[in-house]
Design brief:
Order of helices and strands: HHH
Strand content: under 5%
Helix content: over 70%
Number of strands: 0
Radius of gyration: 19 Å
Distance between the termini: 16 Å
Shape: elongated
Number of helices: 3
Largest sheet: none
Length: about 90
Amino acid sequence: MDMMLERLQGLQEDQLSSLASVVATCSLNEVLAEVGNHQRLHTTKIEPTVSDHGCYSSMDTSVSQVNEKILGSLKSVKRLKQSVDLYH
């Protein structure tokens, strides 16, 4: 951890911003892959019926999970930046 903080201290502001973007993008890609897998598991070839409304709530849940994970990633990046700023 100390070694990582030492390396982060040497980064310029634009480099830290780029790192934050990479972390956020990687997290987003991971979440989107999870949602895609979830949707593939719950997709059927049967024509939708009136009873299939549960599908929509499942989709709403997936979107909510994506939003939560993105928010968590952004908070992690913010904490990382604050830690680095403390050492500068």
